[in-house]
Amino acid sequence: MKNWKWLLILVAAVAAFLVGRATVDDGEEAEAAEEVAEEQEYTCPMHPQIRQQGFGTCPICHMDLVPAGGSSSGDEPSVHLSEGARRMGRVQNEYVQRGSVSSELRLFGTVEINENAEVDLTAWTGGRIESLRVAAIGERVRRGQLLARVYSPELLAAQRTLLQARENADDAREAGSERRLRAAEASLEAARAELRLLGVDARQVAAIEESGRAQETVDVYATASGTVRARYASEGDYVNTGDPILSLAALDTVWVQLEIFERDLPRVDVGAPVTVEIPGASETVEGRLEFLAPEVNRDRRTVRGRVVLPNEDGRLRPGMYVRATLEVAESDDALTVSRSAVLWTGERSVVYVYDRGLDPPGYVPRVVKLGPVVGDRRVILEGLDEAEEVAARGAFRIDASLQIQGGPTMMSLFAGEEEWAETVGEAPPVEVDPEGSEFDPPIDPGRLPDEVWYCDMGTTHWAQPEKGDDECPLCGMRLTEKTGEEGHHGHDH
Known about the structure:
Structural class: alpha+beta
Number of domains: 4
Strand content: 25-35%
Helix content: 10-25%
Number of helices: 8
CATH architecture of the largest domain: Beta Barrel
Distance between the termini: 79 Å
CATH superfamily of the largest domain: Efflux pump adaptor protein, beta barrel domain
Low-confidence stretches: 21-37, 414-426, 486-493
Number of strands: 29
């Protein structure tokens, strides 16, 4: 029994010790939490320059202060986020990558006739078109097909000359005179050549000699296969030597003429592979860029690029609309980041670099010079180094945190001011007109001269040399006097 009593006493003592310990720990934790709360820096959402330790209200607008999302230490603006804040803000980091990159340039264009395959059938001699066998534009013509019959007095006279020369050669051959035969055969060959020059082929010349009769009309045959593009004469028309009768275009190959904007020309090379999509033919064809026009279209600011495609079955018709993808080799050694890492303002762009050398580590804004977009990544020409860590997602949230701190942000620094390195703490001062000055975009109040009254919204959009009615004419807020004392503003409440 005594042993049991001693055991109960020991258990009670241990329990009392643990309860006391827990009470002390809870008190210490509460005290520590209270100390952390007192050390937490708070700021006003409407007036980010107001910062104090511990909770309170804004002395300007009397709004409740909120915990500051980060801090800027030293001369370089930065944002420090805890792991929890990064998770809540969905901020994700990535490293700058270096390597070869290629992109796709989206182009548009049309199918056109291969100009190298165009043929104009012209009148070899003057005369009247007795019949025209091809009368409609768009008809297919085969090489050697009869196209027209032409009556020509000149051709009739040349045929009669040929028949006379033929008869003289036969007589000389029967007479057995070598001298006469040589002269007659020379005249016969000259008559044949004259007819050939007038557009009569060797087959027709032989038929005339064999029949011994001059034909009143001469047949005109197609010298190439193709499609009739234009008809310049009709039956009964008189034509002169060299006048066009029909225009043919061979469509076994076609040109695809692509419109390339002049800003993209430095990225485009002849010989680059091209994928051509023809919606009207429901197919995609592979080709290569074979030619770039030497001139820029003044109205569209584009240059034509040519792709030659086979078209044996005639499925590609001139005038068809096409889409094309041109493969562009951007660089063999380029720095890239995710497109979401870049905050772009139109004139300048910024990336937030995660600097582990800061205490604690934080995000520092960095001005960058952008190259082309390559898929979901962006080429960086200047401003970053390989393997630097940047905010790939959540850059806008980081920028907003810096703005709440009153620091220079994407919008305040890049809306028409100097380069980042020249603006941080070194922005040029401004003057205030005697009747007041409006600043659009707003400026940092540190750029104002002393002893002026201004609207303090973190940035300043209005300032005037005198207090006046003590209200901003733009937003109606109370004005603040700039006293020249760093970190102090004289507010009139």
